[in-house]
Amino acid sequence: MKRRKFIADTAKVGVGLAILPTLLQAKELNENSKIDFIQQPLPYSYNALEPYIDAATMEIHYTKHAAGYTKNLNDALKEEYKKADAITIENILENISQYSTKMRNNAGGHYNHELFWQILTPTSSKKPSGALAKAIETSFGSFENFKTQFNDTALKRFGSGWAWLIVSNDGLKITSTPNQDNPLMNIAETKGFPLLGLDVWEHAYYLKYQNKRAEYINNWWNIINWNVVEKRFDNR
Ligand code: MN
User: pTM for this structure?
Assistant: First the structure.
């Protein structure tokens, strides 16, 4: 994927945007530069995804957990801006091996959560259509097979992490990452552009589901914004 197109696509769905110009060269920065990534507003209310995700979980997840990643990403960047060729979240992730653990955890946490809010909706079509639907059938046999494999991957992620549908160099793949890593990182075992990501940290479901991660995963399919996922695929 060409970098310029990648950044444009990411911007279109409102993921991972810095408020300063999209490409800011590191040499123009100093430790006093205002480098702030921001959380996009949640595109629905905290209770909009009930009964599948409860309002209390959404509010704490967005205003505490996710906000914390964004704040700590900005803190890390003030210390490590000299390592960046350009300050975009994608550039940082693609070169994450050059950065600290603090940057890895929080740049990942920021990107992953900004994506997660965008790919959810209270008015889900429940399944994809168009080119993405065809690609899923080609890659996994059927949408049902895809869901089964994705559920299995999400369930088997030991501890905290994410399950992903990505576009890799060999087409669509299901993969999983620990902690706040993601498939854009140069350290990821399986690399690609994330279309869909599922947060399986306990903070994403424990208030409602306690230990029943499988039930949370099954219910999550009711609130996927396939329009957004399809656009990510079409514009990848
Ligand atoms: Mn989370």
Answer: 0.88
